[in-house]
Write the structure tokens for this entry.
Amino acid sequence: MAMETVNAIELPPDYYLANFLSLVEFVAGRYWQLLSETEQEFYTRFKAAPADAQKLYVRLLSRKGPLFRHGKLDYAEIGCLRTAAAALSRAGLLAVNPQAEVQQLLGLFSKAELLTRCTSPADRKPLRALGREQLELALQQYLPGDELCARLLRGETVYQLSRGDAFTTFQLCYFGNLRQSLTDYVLRDLGLQRYEHYSLEQRYLLFQSRAQIDRHLHYYRCHEQLPDVLLQDAAALLAFYAGLPHRDAADKTLTRRLERLILALARQLERLGALAEADRLYAECRQPPARERRARIALKRDGPAAALAVCRHILAEPGTEQEHHFALQFGHRLAARQQLDWPAPARYRPPEDVVTLGREHHRVELAAAQYLSCHCDCFYVENTLFNGVLGLFIWDIVFADRPGVFFNPFQSAPADFYQPEFVAARQPLLQRRLQELCEPRFGAIVKSTFQRKRGIANPLVAWQHLSEELLELALRHIPLSHWRCVFRRQLADLRHHCSGLPDLIAFPASGGYELVEVKGPGDRLQKNQLRWMHYFARHHISHRVLMVEWADSA
């Protein structure tokens, strides 16, 4: 289906320029007062440049640079490349034959070109056997730097874009991140992705001050350096940490991003044995697994009593269900060693059946689904059924207008969707909607949304796995009380409780339904799956584990 869509839609030759203009005009229209003088000048100069010059700039911006050979550029929709380049040069957006380092110039040429341009026929033969890196080193020893550059550039024109950093700010202001790019436009234009419409008014946008923009830009510079920093010693990690941007409690998006970065630093410090320093960084993070790591560090540094104190703190303060389970289990093991009282964590063993099947399917879940289909309607759903119905039921709440959660037209979810504040900020709306979980209101909302929104991106709805047949059976056979129970647990922690649901749902001819988790030889229940099943048992939701053995295993 996706390939048919791609083949049916032909983008105009200058589609990329239209998308680029859409982005920069959006930012200029909403953030002009927050842009620096350099960024404003970039926009003004770009807009004043001829259309072909604009096209060349955007084309080069999408290529790997920083230098580009004129002879390697071929864009049929641009009339004259040299004329376009000259116009960009006059606008201060392109440097022609700029001063460049030898290493950068060497990278513009193939191995064969380097040999032809920089060596004589007599010297060429022994150099052919060298690898690329060795050849570049040999050439730099063979010729002085100025002469090597002169030979490389003989008969060539080289370009270098100017003010690319200015566009980075536009990209950040538009998307709210530097992960997304103009590719999102293309996916939309090809029909591969559709997005909900939501408000992008100034008062709802992410950035409200220049200082906030600068902090996010600073964060992304640090994020880019992180992989190299993590390879260094503890002193370098702490110096890097000290240079992170200042956190503003009001900017929850930046806080989340910084905490993920700080958690990575803390974990590496822990591996390096810098436990006190790691603990100090973990203490600044509210995101899991910061408190779990602090408990483990406390055990190593100060013994069981200190670790138990951290576990008590986790149990006393609200957090995720995973943190709560960790504190109960870790604390119970430590307390048992010290012969101290500690509540034993609840244990549950779900109902389990064993079945022997042939290997008609590569996936054990599909083999089990085929086996169960002999006796009832059975679907392989995993997390998609309950997630999808929840997404349909609260669709309008997911995409409701909120400050600082929608930055651009290419979001499948608000920025805070997987954070505790998503539910907290929309509590009245969600509470009222759950009160509507009654017949016939519930089914009407779900079916209507399914028809109206089909194919539009939603973080909970996997359209390819949610058919009308499955939806009809689920709404008919699953009691309202069960939907309500599952939804309440999912909404308590959308990041973690939207996974771990059973693989299959079966609808027996006699009525009702059953959730079935399938496990192949040697496989066992994960912790989040077991927590779901324990929850099902407490709420009388039919479930079991089907252990599959292969008929040819002997």
